[in-house]
Amino acid sequence: MGARAKTVYRCTECGAESSKWAGRCDACGEWNTLIEEMAAPRAAATGASRRKAGISSFGSGGSVADSPQLRDVVGAETHRLTTGLAEFDFVLGGGIVPGSMVLVGGEPGIGKSTILLQVAAQLEARGHRTLYVSGEESPLQVKLRADRLKGAALEVSLLGETLLETILATAAERAPTVMVVDSIQTVFTGDLEGAPGNVGQVRECAARLMRFAKESGTAVMVVGHVTKGGGIAGPKTLEHIVDTVLYFEGEGSLDHRVLRATKNRFGSVDEIGVFRMTEQGLIPVDNPSALFLGDREKHHASGSAVTATLEGSRPMLLEVQALAAKAGFGTPQRVATGFDGRRLALLLAVLDKRAGLSFATLDVFLNVVGGVRLQEPAADLAVAAALASSVYDKPLPPDAVFIGEVGLGGEIRAVGQAERRIAEAEKMGMTVAYVGERSVPRRAPKGLRVAGVRDLGALFRELFR
Ligand code: TYD
Ligand code: MG
Fold first, then answer.
1. Where are the domains of the chain?
2. FRET pair for 444, CA 20 to 30 Å: which of 109, 192, 265, 458?
3. CATH of range 291-463; options 3.40.1080.10, 3.40.50.970, 3.40.1190.10, 3.30.230.10
4. Which residues, judged by CB distance below 6 Å to any ligand atom, belong to the binding site of ligand 1?
5. Of the residues 114, 257, 283, which should be mutated to test ligand 1's pocket, given the most ligand atoms within 8 Å of the CB?
6. 416: which residues sit within 8 A by CB, 6+ positions away?
7. How far apart are CA 32 and CA 34, in angstroms?
8. Which CATH architecture has domain 77-286?
9. Using one digit for the tens of pLDDT, what is the confidence trace for 215-231?
């Protein structure tokens, strides 16, 4: 064993450095903000190692590095590794980029270990070497999961290890194409004193894994736990360090899962992939609209409306359910699942003022089916229609789709890419689309009537007269 590397304590609030740990930062006075981290090397690094570490040379002590013009930089866009799990590749922007680092977050039990083991298995089946490092589960537990998965899961090499130095040494020797680290919160370096999972450890381990990825060309995929608030546990900087952040979401009780990119240096964000959790692991769903509308026709009641949302580049039909019921004493409740509570309050006020629908004595519950979050204003019209349908207790036409933003005057505004949404609705067998007047396409689609509506009053007269 060599001498312990030198460490310092840094305040996460003000960045002040101190050589000893203390409960309170001397510089800014905040409590419990000092975390241990590796001291920056004092001696001037050589030009080569500085270049490797991505540090530009300036001031004294650095040797001069070349700085070619961009046109002289050689190399082609790196070839991506496709996993064959179509939805996973899609969310990444077309496959895994060699030498990149991807963070996969999500609640416990959502399927992070499952999907990464499936990815490793698929890559093995395509002749790539993989290494699955598990600090969360025993090798036997991982084996039991591999037994349930189809494909080449049993070919994946497993390393049950949590010490970063051993993980990196093993990875350097085996030179896998892709390494999975499950999870970043269980890994620790012997150079820092803190326990695995503490902020300093997580940050240092992530930074070194990132360096390994860049230097070796191995793609590193790490699992990160999420906190109650939904962020990835550990320092916020973790999300800044990595190239790509994926979140895995879903409702525990339902069997489908949504994978979403929230940061992607090699592709666009907001793309989603949909999977179903089955006995044999996660199966990509290539027609999410059908999945989300699946249960609908069987029990069609008042308060249900369908909208066509655009998640990333892909249109998708979703059902919104509203229930307005007589409130007990006190302030009526407003509960929204999968929809912004303030946006709901705004729509209720508009419905009251512009369409004469009062919710003052009604509890209001709003739910986006399937555990998906509707974040687009384009969903306003479906929410308003669902609310009105519940108040009148009259079902909406079962094959109608509602697309439009509702303004404060009750007017229905145009939304982006209306034609693609309408096309998706037509594909899914809808026969009428209610949209803002300016969203009516010039060329009418074949199997679907597009009804341009000016405002909520006009829409409700047509629907409920
Ligand atoms: P897991 O990948 O262990 O979740 P995470 O790593 O995010 O904590 O998946 C956990 C759940 O998935 C568990 O409840 C069992 C279920 N599961 C299946 O339904 N089918 C399968 O083939 C597998 C492997 C797991
Ligand atoms: Mg797991």
1. 1-39, 77-286, 291-463
2. 458
3. 3.30.230.10
4. 106, 108-114, 145, 148-149, 277, 279-281
5. 114
6. 310, 378
7. 6
8. 3-Layer(aba) Sandwich (3.40)
9. 999 999 999 988 766 66
